[in-house]
Write a structure and sequence with these properties.
The chain is α/β, with parallel strands linked by helices. It is 31% helix and 31% strand. It has helices spanning 42-57, 76-93, 102-114, 173-176, 193-205, 228-237, and strands at 3-7, 12-20, 29-37, 66-72, 97-101, 120-130, 133-142, 145-155, 168-170, 186-188.
């Protein structure tokens, strides 16, 4: 399959292009990828990076099977940028898009980093949501496929409860490590475009691709900043 994937839900901008090879080739596909600073740079750097990788892969947008993107949760600005770019490119090339949960992509990246050979592997995925909170989701990798076992949560670090020896994976340990429960392995990981590429084939077979206009960011928090009164109240409490 020919796929374009990108995730801009965190401070990392991750982009990858996969080109399928002809039958009989030594590898089923080739991948070109880029990882670099995201955040404020995403809006100006995402499209040029996509164009550069597509050129390196020798692909036109019309040759893609679909466009895969991290739909959230994550940075509000990053999610809106990813969704807008995916929709624009897909509409121009008459393609469908495949939105993928960023916590699932994080879980897959952690599994890949750990080179887990277990038939069943469970992980709690955690993304820094700022404002002293985290996005959390629990997933099981079973029989070569993932399933979510707990719904999305927006929680404070000390409110996370451990489920047995389930490892924790994410980008929260530097900021909240001392406030998280102890006793579980910790894996530093982020959602990446390469993780999206690994997840895409199965999700496509499950009918996950949608029309561009149906691709929307997944928001868990409906508030992006504290009010002046809230900040003043917190300061007075110190």
């Amino acid at each position: 399959m020919n796929l374009l994937a990108f995730d801009t839900s965190t401070d990392l901008m991750s982009v990858a292009v996969q080109r399928g090879n002809a039958a009989g080739a030594s590898a089923a596909h080739q991948v070109w990828q880029h990882s670099g600073p995201g955040g404020a740079q995403t809006s100006s750097q995402l499209i040029p990076t996509i164009q550069r990788l597509m050129a390196q892969a020798g692909l036109q947008f019309g040759q893609l099977d679909t466009i895969v993107f991290g739909s959230g949760p994550g940075s509000f600005t990053g999610l809106r940028t990813a969704c807008a770019v995916a929709q624009g490119l897909a509409l121009g090339a008459n393609l469908k898009v495949l939105p993928i949960d960023t916590l699932l992509a994080l879980a897959e990246e952690a599994r890949f980093q750990e080179a887990s050979r277990l038939a069943q592997w469970r992980v709690t995925a955690l993304l820094d949501a700022r404002m002293d909170e985290m996005y959390a989701g629990d997933y099981i990798f079973d029989s070569c496929r993932w399933r979510q076992v707990k719904g999305y949560r927006l929680i404070r670090p000390e409110d996370l409860s451990l489920d047995g020896n389930c490892p924790l994976a994410g980008n929260v340990f530097a900021s909240y490590g001392a406030r998280l429960p102890t006793g579980a392995a910790r894996i530093d990981a982020l959602p990446t475009a390469s993780a999206l590429l690994r997840l895409a084939p199965f999700l496509l077979t499950q009918g996950g691709a949608v029309a561009p206009e149906q691709a929307l960011p997944l928001y868990i928090r409906d508030k992006v900043a504290k009010t002046t009164l809230e900040r003043a109240t917190e300061k007075a409490a110190l």
